[in-house]
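Good morning,

Both structures are done.
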Amino acid sequence: MKEASLGLSAATENIASGLGGKVVKKKKGQAIDVVLGAQWGDEGKGKLVDMLSQEYDVCARVAGGSNAGHTIVVNDIKYKFHLLPSGILNPEAIGIVGNGVVIHLPSFLTELDGLTKNGINHNGRVFISDRAHIVFDFHQAVDGALETRLGRHKIGTTKKGIGPAYASKISRNGVRVGDLRNWEYFEQRFRALAEHHLRSYEGLEIDIEKELAYYKSIAPKILAMTCDTIQLTNQKYKEGKKILVEGANAAMLDIDFGTYPYVTSSNPSIGSVLTGLGVSPKKLGGIYGTVKAYCTRVGEGPFPTELNVLVGEGEHLATVGHEFGTTTGRPRRCGWLDLPQLKYSITINGYTSINLTKLDVLTGLKTIPLGVGYKLNGEYLDTMPACLRELKDVEVEYETMQGWDEDISKCRRFEDLPKNCKTYVLRIEEILGVPIRWIGVGANREDMLDRGEQFEQE
């Protein structure tokens, strides 16, 4: 395989030379790195992004909308990000909201105002894709109404209008941020979309003139930040700038690969980096899967290792882990770490290393069951079943690991962790076959240990 690869590279170089062209090779270290959620979301991606982003020139969001949430604490100030890349806290970095994001502009402006009030200067550092679709208030109203209509069969959405906005996009009647450049065109498309929704949803109210007046008033401010982010991103890459993509949501909420229909309406997996930012897969570098040391989930859907959060170990995870959603405020469902689920996530995303978070939450547990296999009707499964009835019925096989009582929040080297704690981490690493590079050992920004670049796969 190596010889074939080298031959193709040489052939390409010869062709370029013969045509008078030039092959631009990727410089060592030049790549687009990605932080993704490997479970059902809320894994703690923001903390790693916050740490890494200090070394990057460009930070980008590529999928989802204000249904996602990162919380970053800097100098005792809590920042909650829903649309902006949290790397914008690095004063030297620019933030890009890619074409794959659906953006509720009032929420976006509120988020910017929050940064300004806290002394963060974002002027000239935030860029919105002119191809990003807009989430309107009526999308949010429809989202809530649909959830109510579903009753006990509800999906468990955040009611932020994400699904209806993506539905408009796929139905080809959506409105994009760049449409604001031509007011007549924007108004035409907005009226058509609003009237379509009024016809489709009985009882829905939209003050079309009021909405248009609002968007006309904010258009200059929005357009000052709007550009062709595909061109911008690829130009920054060409200049050798370091680029970090902040994944939103997580693999098991992916519209294609997640526990459908209890998923989000976008692709939070690795594919979204290509389609939501407009870059080639050849430009990807590190793919960092963020894994909570146990499992949580917000909303409905199967959850094989779930515990009762009102009693015993489930209550411990929920209480010590402060498991409430950043976006919804809803209590999260909690359970043991599910390695079959993570193997599936690894297959899809090809993580080069893992960021293991909230290991400290397990402190104080006498034993820690680790989900290592699925059985259905007495037979072992090779992967997560697509059919939710089957996933709901799987029997999880556990390995019981010994717990620890020592405070690990001050540990900054792997060697400093208690023996049982290290054994837990190494067993996860062994079964998954992917190195664990970062380990979260406490709630504070600095409570993380980094085992070094040697704990990354090529």
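Second structure follows.
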Amino acid sequence: MGTPTPPPPVKLIAGLIFSDPEVLAQARETLAQQYGPVEEESHILPFDFTRYYTLEMGPHLQRQYVSFEQLIACEALPPIKLFTNALEATLADPDGRRRVNLDPGYLSLDLLVLATTKNPGHRPYLGQGIYAELTYRFVQGSFRPLEWTYPDYRLQTSVEFFNRVRQRYREQIKALKALRPPGG
């Protein structure tokens, strides 16, 4: 019989889709106030993989990924997604249309998981109306997309960004283990 043990803390990440750089700055500032400083940020890339967000958010959308310095518990993901949903509503235009899309998730040594409110059938339920979207597995020295991974996460630049974040996370976990007392 196995003994239940909690997993190590994980690295909080977020994907942001936006068109107005000022709204991006507001979203990032609020996220940093809530979850601590941004540690890594990707380049800003055009987001033209789908028209799903265009009707609500307008044309010329862009994408950026960020990771946060502080580690979190895996089970913190549903409340974080609820917070980012509320932040999207706060930053919406006067007609209620979103001006930023926030996709929080976490990265471990083995995988990258995003939080979503949508359940197309392959997503495990996490609680509080939130589901897990397994986006990458770490195989043979790199994160690898899965058959349902979103097109923007499939880009080599995206994979490389998250591999860099994983390396930093690995260093953090190693440092945490070194701080633990022997046998503890």
